[in-house]
Amino acid sequence: MAEKQFFLKVLMLDASSGFYRLKRYAVGDFFGPVDLGIHMSFKHNSLTIGGGLLAGSIFPGSNRMIFCGISPCWHGFYISSMGGAALVFDNLGINQLVILGKADRPSLLYLNRNHGEEIEVELVPVSPGTIWKMGRGGVYGVMEEAMIRFSGRYETDPRVLATGPASRYTDFGAIASAPVRKKKLTPVDTWAGRGGFGSKLFQEHGIVGIIYGGTHVDEDFCERTVADQWFEDKYNQRMAAKDIEATTKYRYDPGVETGGTFGVNYATMSGNILAFNYRTIYWREDERKAFHQKFIRDHYLKQFNEETIQKKQQKTCGEPCAAVCKKMNGIYKKDYEPYQALGPLCGIFDQRAAEMLAGHADMLGFDAIAAGGILAWLMDCLDEALLAPDDIGAAMKPKWHFQDFDVVEDSMHNAELGKRLLDEMVRPDGKIPLEKGARKLARGLAKGKGTPVMDRFVHTAFARQGWMVPNQYWTPGVLAPMAIMGKYYMHYGSRFMPPRDLGRENALRMLQELMLDNLGICRFHRAWAEDLMPDIIEKIYGLKDRFLASIGLTAGRITSRNASVFWESERNIDMVHTFLKNKQQVDNIHDPDLEHWLDLFDKDKHRAAFEFWYEMHKGTHETLRNFPV
Question: CA of 69: how far to CAs of 33, 49, 558, 570, in Å?
Answer without folding.
Answer: 10, 9, 11, 31
